[in-house]
Specification:
The protein is an alpha/beta fold. Helices cover about 40% and strands about 20% of the residues. Strands 1, 2, 3, 4, 5, 6 and 7 form a seven-stranded mixed beta sheet that branches.
């Protein structure tokens, strides 16, 4: 009898400071995904966070020489071999950071084909939240990944804020996004339609993960 391989969730954090709100968001999204996967199925779950801050010199060397150092090669293998990917960047000049873009530039253009990706971003003001749709979604569409419906932007004021009657608070959005990634990884509907609805689910339309993959492969 063969042991079942664990599900692998990899989070890429492009935060530059230490401590970093970008890393914190990546950690919370990964933990929300792990919790849902653990609750919904019996396979073990492995979570790894790739800190691009620690790989900045290796990324620059690879861009110049065309050969990845061992630490960068290991990170690239982890990202391309993951069952589900979380990608979080701080907002720089109304877009993702240069380090974030440089890392994903190093991936083979087909390496993420069909892979479910949860995107997130952090910034000082809510005005930059559109970075998720005008910058990050197009990037992962080009890489032929399946970007999940819910993305998470965290402004400085969101940390510790409960939200109000018109908006979901940050913890609720993190749980919702983590649930979508868990469902995509295990082949259920991205919005979690195979389980009982919760107050965090909202009223978004149900989009089967298989339907997204089929659309991607015929595009």
């Amino acid at each position: 009898m063969f042991a079942t391989a664990p599900l692998r969730i990899v989070a890429v954090s492009a935060g530059l400071s230490s401590p970093s709100s970008t890393r914190l968001l990546a950690d919370r999204l990964a933990e929300a995904t792990r919790e849902r996967l653990t609750a919904d199925q019996d396979r073990a779950v492995e979570v790894r966070v790739v800190e691009l801050r620690d790989l900045a010199v290796s990324v620059a060397n690879h861009l110049v020489t065309g050969f990845p150092p061992a630490d960068l090669r290991d990170a690239i293998d982890a990202v391309t071999g993951a069952d589900g990917l979380i990608a979080v960047s701080p907002v720089f000049t109304a877009s993702y950071s240069g380090l974030f873009k440089s890392f994903f530039d190093l991936l083979d253009p087909t390496a993420l084909t069909g892979k479910p990706v949860l995107i997130g971003a952090t910034g000082g003001t809510p005005r930059h939240s559109l970075v998720l749709d005008h910058a990050m979604r197009p990037l992962f569409s080009y890489l032929r990944a399946v970007t999940l419906p819910t993305s998470v932007y965290a402004a400085s004021e969101d940390w510790g804020a409960p939200g109000d009657e018109y908006t979901e608070g940050l913890p609720s959005r993190i749980r919702r996004a983590g649930g979508e990634l868990a469902s995509a990884v295990t082949g259920r509907t991205v919005s979690g339609a195979s389980r009982a609805a919760t107050p965090d689910d909202g009223e978004d339309a149900v989009v089967p993960f298989e339907q997204q993959l089929a659309a991607l492969r015929t595009s």
